Amino acid sequence: MIIGGGYTGMMAAARLAWRGRAVALLEKHELGWGASSRNGGMVHHGFKVGLQTLIERYGDRGAELYRSSIDAFDLVEHTITEQRIDCEYERSGHLSLAYRAGHMKGLGEEATVLRDVFKLDVRLIDDAELHSEVGSTAYHGALLVEKSGGLHPAKYMAGLTRLARDRAAHLYGGIAATAVERRRRGGFTVETAGAKIACRDVLLATNGYTDGILPQVRRRIIPLGRSESIRS
Ligand SMILES: Cc1cc2nc3c(=O)[nH]c(=O)nc-3n(C[C@H](O)[C@H](O)[C@H](O)COP(=O)(O)OP(=O)(O)OC[C@H]3O[C@@H](n4cnc5c(N)ncnc54)[C@H](O)[C@@H]3O)c2cc1C
User: Closest residue (by CA) to atom 32 of ligand 1?
Assistant: First the structure.
């Protein structure tokens, strides 16, 4: 049983069904209602916190974590190509911009690790080359990462949904799971307003929308304020 019908839940539904598992997915709103149909569509490896910081703080586990983000990128790209998901995906590459001169040193160190440890195609570009690329003189240079791209988020979501459905996963929009309980003799019971469903495993894929369904998970969700501005 999968709870939550975004990228996480739907990719899991498609892959589990492909492996022959009986899969049901419950989504509180319509399928793809959450962040998965209304994000920026940038497909990158990496995290908000920089690679250097990740390795300094967590050592090998930090590197493993970073590797998992590269694997996730590969999975998305492979799924789109292999399953011919029409979502305007383009392997465009991306730039990490140095808006202070001092940022170039950190970007240089990051480039070295990305190249030497992760064998990625990256390079530093100076302010003159950057100017011809982005048309702005505001930056001191950039790190160019080739392995990244962009897609239409809702079309990708629709493609994953089609894939899961074609593989006979049972997808239910408009049904909220209200409780999950472990059964004494193994497995779980998932409750909704109208039913109690017995299942072997449960994947909770509810992201920041996680409600009171599992209080121990809800406690770990921290609201973060964020704002982005785009100037032309
Ligand atoms: C404005 C914005 C821009 C972003 N831009 C990018 C970007 O450019 N690149 C990128 O990689 N990421 C981006 N993200 C992040 C990305 O969208 C998310 O990480 C991703 O969509 C998470 O997918 P998910 O399936 O885990 O969660 P979601 O898509 O949020 O799905 C969770 C679902 O669980 C459902 N749910 C919750 N509780 C229950 C319940 N009790 N029963 C049933 N269903 C339930 C919700 O209704 C929801 O639909 C962005 C996010 C936002 C908000």
Answer: 206
